[in-house]
Amino acid sequence: MGEAVRSDSEVAAMLIGELAVEAGTTTRALRYYEEQGLLESDRTPAGYRLYERGAVRRVRNIRELLSCGFTVEDVKSFLAYLDADLPDVFSYSPVCADGYGVGAQRVAELDGRIAILTQLRDSLVHRMPWLAASDDSADEPAV
């Protein structure tokens, strides 16, 4: 009792909660990805979202790209590759020309931020030399 009977075509599909668990995310994130055009679903007669089994890889890839600092808009440049094994795609640089360009732009932005932060750190250590000594003590073993 309480368990819905699914047709053969639905057995290969997953409900939103199942996909969230399999992909390690939330149903809210899945709805957001769908709103942004990164993920597609069908609907049951009752209106529940149904996702293909391959959506697990797609969602994991979306999450991986987001965790690397890409924005949702950036991830859209990888749409054609979201169902593939991303390490395989990335190892053949630049298979995905749009994604490669976005990646290069993100690296340049990070390099700029690192340079600014390094200058700020150096300026602070210059003004407060005792802070440099605390950096050296991090290399010493604890007694």
From TrEMBL:
Q: Does the keyword Cell membrane apply?
A: no
Gene3D superfamilies hit by this protein: 1.10.1660.10
Q: Which InterPro entries match?
A: DNA-bd_dom_put_sf, MerR-type_HTH_dom, MerR_fam
Return the PROSITE patterns for the record: HTH_MERR_2
Q: Where is the HTH merR-type domain?
A: 13-81
- Which is one Pfam family of this protein? MerR_1
On the tree of life, the source organism's domain of life is: Bacteria
SUPFAM superfamilies, from UniProt?
Putative DNA-binding domain (SSF46955)
One GO MF term attached to the UniProt entry? DNA-binding transcription factor activity
* Entry keywords, A to Z: DNA-binding
Protein name, entry field: Cu(I)-responsive transcriptional regulator
Could you tell me which species this protein originates from? Streptomyces avermitilis
